[in-house]
Amino acid sequence: MRQEQPEEGQNNEIKPEITEVEDIEALKQALAEAKKKAEANLANWQRAQADFINYKRRSEQEMGEVGKFANTTLMLSLLPILDDLERAFASIPPRLAKLDWVDGIRLIERKLRASLEAQGLSRIRALGEPFDPRFHEAAIYAKGKDGIVIEELQKGYMLHDRVIRPTMVVVGNGEEDEEKEE
Hints:
The chain contains 4 helices and 6 strands. By secondary structure, the chain is an alpha+beta fold.
């Protein structure tokens, strides 16, 4: 009987080793799962942080755009005044053109134009240029070089890099070129 007891003792010692190995394996598996979860949480946090940085940059850019173009309505309301002043100066009889009050009004027009240009307003060049629907609005087709602006009916303007009023133009239809070739 004594021989059986040590064998039983050995069996008892083997059982704790097996449970310890099982516990170690379970802990390793739990650690691996925890590492995966931590890595997933880190990746999600980094993604959220990148999204926030992008959102912040986009918001700042949009705010800059809003500030840059906030005066568009005001500019559009002042452009007809510039047009009227130009038409008035064009129709002044030569005998009145040199009067002081006319020079004073010209000075006011130049100051208004300079003030608008300081805010980012610029005139669209059209005369003699190829017709471009991004900058020009064709009102009439007439005899002239095909696809070239031959006359400006109303000046167009840009605010920074955006067209706020296209130039209304007369575009050549190519008839003049055909007559020259004959």
